[in-house]
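Just scan this pair:

***
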Amino acid sequence: MTISMDAAAELYRQAMRDGVRRFSLLYLAQSGLLVLAGFLSIISPVFSDEAVVGAIGWLLIASGVLQAIGLIPARQTPYVWLQLISAVLALLIGFLILRNPGQSLMTFGVLLVVFFMIEGVSKVVWALTIRPIIGWLWVLLSGVLGVVLSIILIINLETAAPWLIAIFVGLQLIAIGAAIGYLAWSIRQIGNRSNPIG
């Protein structure tokens, strides 16, 4: 039996809503921790350049771990692969940065350009896939921010200071955390109104 593209898209969106609503508390916790990691990244430039690089590496690893933990109960949902890209990428780039925190600023910048670009594109694709679920626009904007930050960093790669890169990482983590939090909260509220007992 075949179904139309519209019907398949609606089935996907319904599965997405159900998955986010079922694990909304986990998504909200992940959101809060990502926003906290973003603020820590923004204030890290008060330390030395090498300390900033190390802090960014650890914050990326933490964000990857948080996203991966959020995927464990949601591994059967149809959108899990998009989130998996973000988690693996954050872990990989965090490890690469920590493996050699004294690496050249150019290498450090290139790693973060890759992070911002792939993270941004994956969030844009995810947002367009779940559209018109409430909160999709915020996920889209967090993805667009990642792409814009990667372009700004590419243009200024030779002159970008670690403190500027730390602020970019902080902004990206805050945007992702806030978008996921808003999406989870909105879907949870709608679910609670439609099913007041559950």
About this structure: The first helix runs from residue 5 to 22. The chain has one domain: 7-194.
